[in-house]
Write a structure and sequence with these properties.
- It is a single chain.
- By secondary structure, the chain is α+β, with helices and mostly antiparallel strands.
- The chain has two domains: 382 residues, Outer membrane efflux proteins (OEP), CATH 1.20.1600; 81 residues, Outer membrane efflux proteins (OEP), CATH 2.20.200.10.
- It is 63% helix and 14% strand.
- The strands form two sheets. It has a four-stranded antiparallel beta sheet with strand order 2-3-5-6, with no helix packed on it. It has a two-stranded parallel ribbon with strand order 1-4.
- A hairpin with a 2-residue loop joins β5 and β6.
- α1 runs parallel beside α9, α2 runs antiparallel to α4 and α8 packs antiparallel against α9.
- The N terminus is likely disordered.
Length: 476
Amino acid sequence: MNLPRYTFQNEFCAYAAGLLLSLVLAAPASAVGQSAPQAAAPTASSFQGSVVTGQASPESIGLSLDDAIQRGLKANLGIILSGTQADTARAQRLSQLQSLLPDIDLNAKESVQQVDLPAEGLRIPGLPTIIGPFGYADVRASLSWSLVNVSSLRAYLAARHNFAAAQLSAQDAHDMVVLTVGNAYLLVLADETEVASAQAQVATSKVSLDQAVANHQAGTAPELDELRARVDYQSQEQQLIAAQNALEKDKLALARVIGLPLAQQFTLTDQAPYAVYDQLDIDTLIKQAHANRKDLAALVEQVKAAEEQRKAATADRFPTIEANADYGDIGTTLAHSHGTVDASATLSVPVFKEFALRGEAQQAQAQLDTSKAQLSDKNAQIDADVRDALLDIQSAQQEVEVARSSVDLANEALKEAQERYKNGVDDNLAVSQAQQSVAQANEQYVASLYRHNVAKLSLARALGAGENYKSYMGGK
């Protein structure tokens, strides 16, 4: 009978759930405090998609981890949405800036009129009933400028901080892409190792099956040994089919995150690396994370923007001064015209807007409180990200070493069980159990190596050093 078998697919499902949660918590912050419509902010699911570029070629292409990440940095949907959000914030900043600058318009007008006096109710004896045609020409420049408007100034400062936050979020999206693409690439590498291991196990099971058949036919072993070996062989074939299916699906997922056409065939050119990571000074790494994390810096800018929005709400109570002026030439024609000018200044003081002003101030205060709470949580989250990544690295390193030893021991036990069965010392139950032990040991090794490398990528992301992912993958 078959023993319960550890499966890499089940192991990944549990680990991927935790990684997806970290992606949600670490998704770039969106700008806040703007009244204009916002561009779609990237979410964790956005980084699982892309904008496909190019056409699939009939030849299979080689794909290294660096190639995949570079493709992702260009085509990943999350990074594209981060860029469009920054463009929107830039446009909003410009719109707010215009409220502080004068509006100048130039108008040119040529008018021709003819008036029917009776139609207007005027019947004057001795005067013609039709006057005209007559006309005039007017060329005029007008200026409107809010000289004193503290609320508009504060709103502009808030828009400037929001733009800075959007730019920082776009930079943080680079680290998210490195983590997302790196995880997808490492998963395909693990799948390939799993397929190779399953193929080797199928070959081993075939040898055991052939041996059991030969012994049964020779009368030296019961039919039960042949049936047990045949069940083991078919079970290994099923495991191979499942592993191959998982590999193809994960290759599609990798193509999705880097913008590769799904019909494009490719092979991975890198191997899963392994190097011990020994830089475990938590305090130093946490300081580095707080200094480098762009999502934290973006939240700082958002708090500043919310503070300016709160001040803008208070400034709505202040008087405003607006100047209006126009200058131009007017006359029957431009050759027979004369300059005219009109200038005025307006002082506006809000007298009875209490409920509107109070409601606006309360909304701005609530937004400020929200931003401060998010900033505080982000600081704690960064500490947790670094500590979690280091714990995962230490644990995975120990698991890799144990799994290596387990693989060697399981292979040795299988070899001995096969020799004992071949020499008629034992039945093939021990062989079947040893095969299951080898399969479990191989899958545990693949899973622990995958977790180790993903933990290093997670540490690079936690430190805000995604662009230096190679140094962490190398263990330096």
